[in-house]
Amino acid sequence: MSTSHDTDVIVVGAGFAGVTAARELRRQGHRVLVLEARDRIGGRTWTDTRLGHDLEMGGTWVHWIQPHTWAELSRYGIGVTPSPTPVKGYWRSGGTVHSGTADELLGLVDRGMAGSTEESLAYFPQPYQPLLAGDRLAEVDGLTVRQKLEQLGLGPEEFDAVEGMWATNFSGRTEDGGYAQALRWCALAGGSWQLMFEACATYKVVGGTRGLIEAIAADAGVEIRTNTRVVSVAQDDTGVTVTLEDGATLTAAAVVATLPLNMLDSVSFDPPLSEGKRRAAHQGQASQGVKVWARLRGEYEPFVALAPGSAALTLCQVEHVADGETLVVAFGSVSERLDGADPAAVQEALRTWLPDAEVLEVASHDWVADELSGETWPMQRAGQLTGSLAELQRPEGRVFVAGSDYANGWAGFIDGAIESGMRAGREVHALLTTVDAFPAIDDTVLSPS
Predict the structure, then answer these.
(1) For the chain, what are the domain ranges?
(2) 172 φ, ψ to 5°?
(3) What is the pLDDT of residues 329-382, one digit of tens each?
(4) Which CATH architecture best describes the domain 9-43+208-283+374-433?
């Protein structure tokens, strides 16, 4: 590679996609520089010490059915540990709180979950090729999760519980969440909604996600500059120029941008990214929720609680019980409905399930208001799978986009970020080692989806 540039590849963002791409490219012999706007690596995965515990403020759960994540855990000798198994179940419907065993709650949601996922393998027989079904996908991709649930003829309690589960999975309104995204997740779990649910909220990384991303970053052996924000990327036939917030510039042969979809237009590209990419970024992901950790007075029997998507919190589960206290994690589908940093507001929300709950302390991070994320975990809106995914994945000249938002498989999970980072690494390596001319920039105008 020519030494006329400051480095061969600049990776924008040090989340799982960015550090994975950096590692793969460095192993191929390329000079790589990672630029991270935050004061830490990890992006939307962040293990922070709060409430006397190492808490996952963002991405948390992993599973062996997520092949890229499991391969990385195996590579670095990192294990997993389960969350407590729920014994009790609480669910709200029609303004009334119901309670029973956790198995009774799972039984309540079974018909709705099975009905809303039964077509998963029909539309995604090979889920890592999510567009394989071709034209047949368009109709199902046009549905929202809520529209599908309304077709199932569920009773009021069933509907409210299942709708709350999907609102939690999407970290957003079921009126926005794409039904095809729900089918993709279930197809990746072999068509089993129960296994999908286990993958979503059961096994955590021993020592936290921080240990895994630090292991990948250390293995990459590249320079990672934190507190370094990129404001623009310009490319021509000779290379790429990256301009930083302080006005400094850096040059490279290629750039990997790992910006979340909701932040893709926060960096200026010259020439502009395609209309299809810009349109998808303007529309944004469906995820606009909130995640809250809370210390409760008293030792609660492990439970899981569900509420409809209209509630401030849609799911809550116990994560730790000791010394007269209980640590719970809870999720809401709309961050504007709840200030996760306000103990009184969180207590009020939790009391819709547990009338006597006393919140001692809370911890939360508003990812939606975060100017570097603008979303929680990435979840597609109706129409975005067939309307945007292929275009978002398509390289434009020397610019490549990567991240869990753009994954083929477990989009919305660490696994999707790693998968996407590996793909970007392969594509950039092919570009840098080709003997042919660099591909022309295609700014094809796409018709609206």
Answers:
(1) 9-43+208-283+374-433, 84-201+290-366
(2) -170, 180
(3) 999 999 999 999 999 999 999 999 999 999 999 999 999 999 999 999 999 999
(4) 3-Layer(bba) Sandwich (3.50)
